[in-house]
Amino acid sequence: MKQITLRANSEEDVRTQLNDLEAKSFHASLAFIFILDRSLSLDLVQPFHDLNIEIFASCSAELIYNGGKSEFSIIALLLEIPREYFRLKVFKQDMNSTLMGNEIAQFALSSFHKPSILLLLAFRDLNFEPEKLIQGILDTESTLKIFGGIASSFGEVEHPPFLSKQGFETQGACALIFDQEKIEINGLAVSGWQELGTPKKVTRAEGRKVFEIEGMPATDFYARYFGIKQNNSGIRRNHIDSELLAVSEFPLMIHKEDGSEVMRVSIQMDSEEKSVSYGGDIPEGSMVRFCSPNTMDTIQHSYEEMSSFRSNLKDTVPDFILMFNCAVRSRSLGSYMNTELKAIHNLWKKPIIGFSSWGEIGNSKNSSCGLHNTVISIVAIREVSQKTESLYPSLFLEPEEFKFEPIQETLSLEEMRKEITQLQRDKRILGHFLRLTSDDLQQEEEKSSKLLLNILPKETASRLKAGEVNISQRVNSASVLFADIVGFTSLASRTDPEELVAMLNKIFTNFDDLTLSYGIEKIKTIGDAYMVAAGVPHRVDHHSDLCFSLAKDMIAFMKDFSTREGLDLKIRVGINSGLVTAGVIGKHKFTYDLWGDTVNLAQRMESNGEPNSIQVSENTYKLLSNKQSFVSRIIQVKGIGEMNAYIYNL
User: Fold this and answer.
1) CA-to-CA distance for 325 and 331, rounded, in angstroms?
2) Which of 96, 138, 490, 549 has its CA 20 to 30 A from that of 115?
3) CA–CA dist 529, 177 (Å, integer)
4) Domain segments of the chain as ranges
């Protein structure tokens, strides 16, 4: 593929270089053009129009050329390819975004048997919905390859446009369609952002607009977490408002139903609606987390994924790389952005041209095509050759060893002042955010601890959190209590399951309260059976008395509950005392449990007992301080035979 890159700072410079190329018999048919926002002018593209060169052009916050950001006003990559290899058309928003997507797909499919699509998008307001546009394309033909970016600016242009023969386009799409049988494109979008803090629920949202997070107005939520001032009225946009731009460096990560992840950057705040709008849709009910880059890890992650992508292309060597790099990503990485760009250029050893965008269209490693924020998206483009590329292995040069170090930029005094101001603002916002995130994590830690204490004794929970694996304890003297609801099985057969669970919950919740009041350890419930122990995990004096008192209160509650509810329910209770082994079993859904003959006999005491009675073993009876009202009896115990027991009937 014949291609030449042009860089210039004025219309005259552009015209001179184009004329020189014409004089050298290089006749471009298509140009990828990116213009720096502060230099935006139709004059810069007029020389291309004069030579009848089709343009795929956008306003940009930053320009990318090979291994770094370019300070030129305009960069252009010119292709000398047959015009029948491509078609280009501008779609203005005189329809909804989904229908526009349908029309773009139909245009592509009517142009070529096997088309691929590159898009430049621009929007003045949120009526233009890039995700619905993409979905409209894929609804028409799901196999289409789609890549692109959204025009951007860092405060220089209120509505960043793409450019066409008609001028600036601030609402719509420029679609460049390639014949895949002539020009092949492949691409990958990579992020590498890492989640911070705790998950938050989006409680009210519509499309790209979020009204409430965790039940709090979205603007109040952001003001709380980032300490930003709220205006009384009006709309704030991140490419104009420096404070909101700094907040944009903490995008939200959404875990989608298909298992993929996508980032969403805040782009607008509406103080009247108290809403925050994002670079893409956030479904109501989504669980989201703030994210931030760990700079070197992020860069190495993107390098490794692109290296893998490059390897998968095998001998399909691109002629050049088109890049769409998130403007927020660039701002967040700072001087390290050039490190990432240089590493990518070192990897491909091919011309790279691109721009920092407000949204990137493409597919990531584990997801289909979609709209992304905070990613660096590359498109490898090549002219399909009749040659067998595998015969020319040297065409794909091996990358040199690369050192991931920041590339120092030479700044003017004014640029240094701006950077210091930005760093001070970022430090304040980051400090506020980290304090609240730390508070969130502390609250989550407390919640987790409470949940853990619901299933484990405090000391055991502490040992487990400290990393102990085999947690067990031999207790020489403890009392174990089993209680079973009599009449529950027959009731269950004629009661609605939800009602049955609700009733059982009422009973066991009361048992829990009673158990807690005596300082006894609840072990578990099994169906309608309830098990507790006194004397574990700490040694406790009079553990048999504690279990006996608890048993009397449980029976008293059941009598009252059955009367109030009009039910014929009673409980049997059995208690045994002696040696037990206590500990935690399992790694997943682990439980604190007791083992030993003492436990087995306690269960036998219950199963051989009578309704509304407490049956205790001889071991327990000997330990009780008050033995009045007990009746001695002989019971037959499976596996043991006859043995003495004592029953207390209420």
Assistant:
1) 11
2) 96
3) 69
4) 2-192+295-385, 194-292, 468-649
Distance of CA 300 to the CA centre of its chain: 20
DSSP state of 538: S
CATH hierarchy code of domain 468-649: 3.30.70.1230
Query: Residue with structure tokens 């629920």?
Result: 201
Beta-strand relationship, 167-169 and 162-164: antiparallel
Crossing angle, helix 413-453 and helix 458-465, to 10 degrees? Answer: 140
**Residues 482, 487: Cα–Cα separation, whole Å:** 16
Residue 409 pLDDT exceeds 70: no
Q: Tens digit of pLDDT for each residue in 150-167?
A: 999 988 999 999 999 999
Strand partners, 122: 172
Phi and psi angles of residue 495, each rounded to the nearest 5 degrees, phi first: -120, 145
CA distance 548 to 554: 10
Residue-by-residue DSSP string for 277-337: EESS---TT-EEEEEE--HHHHHHHHHHHHHHHHHHHTT---SEEEEEEEHHHHHHHTTHH
Assess whether the previous peptide bond of 537 is cis (omega < 30° from 0): yes
Rg of the chain over Cα atoms, rounded to whole angstroms, equals 35
> Quick one: which of 574, 580, 568 has its CA closest to 554?
574
Average the pLDDT over each of 75-89, 113-127, 457-471, 484-498 and give the range with the smallest value: 457-471
Render pLDDT for 528-553 as a digit per residue (tens, 0 to 9).
Answer: 899 999 999 888 989 999 999 999 99
Q: CB of 601 within 8 A of CB of 559?
A: no
What integer pLDDT is reported at residue 389 of this predicted model?
45
**93 neighbors 169 (Cβ within 8 angstroms):** no
Whole-number Cα distances in Å, 389 to 178, 335, 378: 21, 37, 21
Asked if 313 contacts 184 with a C-beta cutoff of 8 angstroms, the reply is: no
pTM: 0.68
What's the CA dihedral at 46, 51, 53, 59 to 10 degrees?
-10
